[in-house]
Amino acid sequence: MADCLAKGEIPEILFWVGCAGSFDDRAKKITKAVVKILNKCKIDFAVLGTEENCTGDPAKRAGNEFTFQMQAMMNIQVLDAYEVKNIVTACPHCFNTLKNEYSDLGGNYNVIHHSQLIQSLINDGKLQIEDKSVFKGKKITFHDPCYLGRANDVYDAPREMIIKLDAELIEMKRCRSKGLFCGAGGAQMFKEAEPGKKEVNIERTEDALETKPDFIATGCPFCNTMMTDGIKNAEKEDTVKVLDVAELIANAADL
Amino acid sequence: MIECLIFAVFSFACLGYFSKNILKIKRNISLGRKLDRSDKKAERLKTMLLVAFGQKKMFSRPLPAVLHFCLYVAFMITSLELLEIFADGLSGNHRLFRSSLGSFYTFIVSFIEVLSVLALIATFAFLSRRNLLKIPRFQMSEMKGWPKLDGNLILFIEIILVSFIFTMNGADEVLYNNGHAHGSSTAGSYNFAVSQHLGPLLFDSFSNSQLHVLERIGWWGHIVLVLLFLNYLPYSKHFHILLAFPNTYYSNLEKKGKFSNMESVTNEVKLMMDPTADPYAVPAEPVAEPQSFGAKDVTDLTWKNLMDAYTCTECGRCTSSCPANITGKLLSPRKVMMDTRDRLEELGDYKQKNGKDASDGKSLLGDYISEEELWACTSCNACVDECPVNIDPLSIIIDLRRYLVMEQSKVPSELAGMLTNIENNGAPWQFSPTDRLNWANED
């Protein structure tokens, strides 16, 4: 972004990478898949790079409003300095916070989730699925990230993408607004669970495995981690792959 | 004449006592913090019509939804019959509206009778779901004792109520068959859908004087039970039949992922981030009394949280969809709502006796809801989405968490580390912010 400013350009859209997408080895692959798609479609985008900062989402969910608002105010100053209008992110937590919770603090942006952007690119014909054979007839089940689905009512964009791949979309018994959550949100990602009889991600992975999928698709780096752990726990990592919707598309479009 | 007088006095007493309890609940709800929900009137009305009148959210579980719908419609329509009962009771007439309404009257009473039969079937189904099938969400620890009895009592009252209706209409029908109807000596039939068959079947062997007594027992039993039931409501989870309407009207219309912004914090943060700010300056406008951050007791919650608590009918859909509860954690969103209501009742009574500013030294956080429950919440909004009357347990949980974190600094140690990382490194993990763009240069 700083480079763009030096050249006097204002990119059309900012790609908010998020902490997971920047630091987590698994999530970095999702970040790269999104970048490949954006480049392929010649989208004029930029990232904040080292100037990006945590949105404050986990602090807010953990009840620490101070830390959240400090983060939010700093981010708003950076975003406004670069005159950012549009933001796309691959993390539903960043998506929810930037979209819904920054406006009360003076940050107003048009924020979309990467699944919404990719879907519109496909619909507009800007992105072609070149190799439909990759996923043709494969069984894919979609796990709804809670901060994308229930929190923001985005259910259809990721599903329509899977259908475009000619894959067989199989719903779990708990799906859409009734979806069970993965176990990571509400700052749970960063702590051990309270005592109970089971871990949430194991329960959710069982839901997914009931559909006998070839792939479990999701739209959130944290869901991805939790489901991948669940698959490892079930010793199914050879037969079932957990992929982000962006990775599905990038694979099929042969990027 | 004496009958009319007894009726008038009894009704007046019951309505009076009911009003007193309603005022008490209103007073308790207004102990909550201010919250403005006076906007978007059209959208609010629509939400109320869909969710409360139309019972939209019930239908995600079709079987109980259909059964509940029978009871709901029967209740709504039978309320019409109460109009006539009141008119008859106060004027000493019998079936006052029949002559003027004619065949429409027959239709309406028939409709009520059919619905009453459906309601009876639903009641038996509900009783067996609670007591024989042992549906898990009715067997949890917060449902022991009064809540369990309360759930069953309502259903038993419903059975007795329907029995009284059919005793009244059935005995009346046989009297009419025998040519002993009120104010008419010709034999005939009321042609009500159910009682024209049920009446002769049950009461054919009774004498006319016995039938008169039966009819009166049915009539009085019905109205006495209705008035007593009305007064039972404020003590029961069944209060939802009234509060469901305002509670859905005042629903949160924002996206569920949006958590409330704390204005008090915003002012502090702005002050901290403004290099020109003078921290010792006298505020330009007089500031309100300093509030604690988050909620410790019910009085720190908003009035909508408190209305939610009184609206909860303890159906447990929230808890049965809660990922924490499903996997055996202590948290139950239903218990959060029941605790809030119980604590509010306790504190409300205490303040009533000892004055507005009195404190009994107890609080919702700690005495009712434990830290372990609060930290088990994943903030996934499943409970909020499930609730058929738009109750929001999550906002109470988050407010209690805020108090723990910001007033008491009680944070689980891993989360304390996460928060420090955000403050120092701008990420929840201990990575250097300068490494943020490394992904772009890796293969």
Structure, described:
The complex is a heterodimer of chains A (255) and B (443). Chain A is α/β, with parallel strands linked by helices. Chain A has 2 domains: 2-118, Rossmann fold (3-Layer(aba) Sandwich), CATH 3.40.50; 129-252, Rossmann fold (3-Layer(aba) Sandwich). In chain A, 43% of the residues lie in helices and 11% in strands. In chain A, the strands form 2 sheets. In chain A, strands 2-1-3-4 form a 4-stranded parallel β-sheet. In chain A, helix 9 crosses helix 10. Chain A is globular, with a radius of gyration of 18 Å. The mean pLDDT of chain A is 89. Chain B folds into 2 domains: 2-11 and 58-235, no CATH class; 239-252 and 293-409, Fumarate Reductase Iron-sulfur Protein, Chain B, domain 2, CATH 1.10.1060. Chain B is 63% helix and 0% strand. In chain B, helix 5 packs antiparallel against helix 6 and helix 6 packs antiparallel against helix 8.
**Succession of helices and strands of chain B:** HHHHHHHHHHHHHHHHHHHH
Largest sheet of chain A: 4 strands, parallel
* Separation, N- and C-terminal Cα atoms of chain A: 24 Å
Number of domains of chain B: 2
Strand order, largest beta sheet of chain A? 2-1-3-4
* Total domain modules of chain A: 2
Q: Report the order of strands and helices of chain A.
A: HEHHEHHEHEHEHEHEHEH
Overall pLDDT level of chain B? 90
In quaternary terms, these chains amount to heterodimer
Principal-axes geometry of chain B comes out as: elongated
Q: Report the CATH topology name of the largest domain in chain A.
A: Rossmann fold
Largest chain interface and its two residue counts?
A-B, 68 and 68 residues
- Structural class computed from helices and strand pairing of chain B: mainly alpha
Please state the average pLDDT score of chain A.
Answer: 89
- Taken as a percent bin, the fraction of beta residues of chain B is under 5%
Q: Helix coverage percent of residues of chain A?
A: 40-55%
Number of helices of chain B: 20
